[in-house]
Structures are given as structure tokens and as C-alpha cells.
Amino acid sequence: MRSLLWILLIGLLQADANPLSLDQLPDGKLPANLKVIKVGSGTVGKVRVTMESVPHPTTGVTEKQRVLEITGGDAAPDHYTLVLLDQPLYSGISISTRFRIVGGKGVRATGVIFRMQPNHKDYYLLAVKPEAKEAFWTVFENGLPAKGFKYDEDQFVSPKDGWQSIKLQAKENTTRWTLNHRQDFITYNPETTPDYHRGMVGFWVRSDSRVQFTSPVLRTLKEEKQHQLVALLKKISRENNRLLSLKLSARPSPKKPPVVIASLEPKEIGQPAHEVVTKVLETEENFHGQKDGISTVTVPVKDRNGKIIGAARMRLSSRVASTQRKDLAYGNDIAKQILAAAPEGDLFDAGHEKAP
Question: Which of 115, 281, 326, 343 would you call most buried, defined as having the most Cβ atoms within 10 angstroms of its Cβ?
């Protein structure tokens, strides 16, 4: 595994900011950071935020949620209505949402746009046509499709409730996505394919399709890595009932003091690590303390080559008879669980973003 000195970059991102959040918007209002344009014939479509009963993707239980509803402005097949996040411009991104097509007389299709250039003609698109069981990755140049990739129709499985789920990640010249739990990717050759380094992000509907998007989330790749790390700590905490707190720390650079890069307490992320963490990183030794029946354990986290890449610090309950030796064994097992759930190139890769 690549050295975890890379993941320290994640820890400086304390807030899980989501510029596509619909939570605080009143019905009928469009987020101020979005703009609507049209491509092709017809007039620009309509966009609004409204409430809908949306089934949970796992349990099927419905709950009221705000949805972004986009209706294309013309039934012609060459009409597209685009809703774009104007600023900032993104390079490496992770975007996810659930959507359903609820109407339209023309071509019923929708998708996610990314790296849209200022001319509104050059961009990448992942489009879905659920009724036809088709999905496409396409690069547009000067408003026209230049190159693309089509899914195998036999592999397209649409949810019974009609709500498709999609998660897309773009890093440099590789795009990976999960559509209804099917994973795929494409890596293009920047010498033979239009190579857009960064740009606007948004949603796309074709013809007069009426599409509802719910729970849209947009993060940079670094924000997504931090989110995954925190989710991992929460999972480990649920599965290990002695854990009262758990955090990971690493150095921002070899000579800088360590900071907290992930924690069960969001306010701790980005803060200076406890002084004991520095000792652990320098000596590669375990540290143990106990007060009022609570054990505090700090242990090194090592990669698969045995190189120390961070430190895990945790507080343990003493509801069962324990000793220093047992506590340290417990702490080192937690460190192994963290490493085991973070394969190379995933959680512990900060995901450098290529500059334009």
C-alpha cells in the first residue's frame, strides 16, 4: 500500500460540504448556485424543488424528501435541458444521486454532466435510458458527440420502484461509476480523445423528459476519501462495543506535527493530534493509560510492508475485566481492521487532482 502520508491531505477537510444539498430549500425554489441552459431546438426547460415520497433503497419504506425536478423544454430529440453548478470548477469529483423519469413524450433519457467547459459545448456525459435498458458515456466536442461507450443492455437491471441510483467518480482520464449496483469504468486516451481537465458539474435531460433527482451529493475526491474514512471508523465502532472514541492521525508532511485526519467527533478533524501520537509515530511503540476505569490506547497503523503510516487513538470501556496487555491487543486489532478495510488506492489514497 502506498504510504498513508498521502491521506493526511484528507484530514484538513473538516466540513462535509455538499453544494447540491436540497435540505434547506423551500418548495418551488431553485438553488442559487445552479443555472439552467438549453442545447438544441426549443425553449429552456423548467426546474423546481418539490417534495415527493421516495422509497428507501434498502427497506422500501417511503419518506418525504426534497427532489430536484427537471422538465425538458421540447419533445424534439435534439433538445437538451442542462442544470449546471456554475462555480466552482471541478476536476476530480464524486457525485451521487437517485433519480426517476416520470414523464415525457420524446426521448426519455437523463444523466450527469461533468467538466463542462465555459463554452457549454465541450463536456463529458453519463446518460441513462431506463426504458431501453441503455447507458452511455459520451464526450462532447463543440456540442456534438465525439466518442462514447455503451453498456451491454443485458446487464442493465432497473429497480422495481423506478428509482435508479448512480455514483460517478472522475479522476484525471478515468471515469468510474456504479449504476444500480453494476460497476463499470472507462479510461480514455488524452491524445486521441478531447481532454477536459476541469469544469462545471450538473444534470442533463433529453427532449421533454420530466426527471426527479433526490439526495444529490457532490464532493471532491479528497472530501470523498475523508467521508469514507469516517464511515469506516463508525462501522468499526458499531462492531466493537468497547470503543468509546476512535480517531486517526498522521503528519501533513514528514517534518510537521500530526493532525487528526478522521474521527467519530467531526470537530476534531484537522485539529492537532495528542502529544502521545507524536511519540507513537517516532518510536512505533504502543501507549496505554487508564483513568476512572477508562483505558486510552494509542497504537501505530502500519501498511502491508510494515511501515508506520499513522496512529489510531481510542478510549475503551472497562465493562469487562481487562489488563494493559489485553487493551493493547484490542487496540492493535482495531488498527488491523482499519487497514484491512482500506485496500490500496482506495481509502488511503488522497487522490491528487490534476491541475488544468
Answer: 115
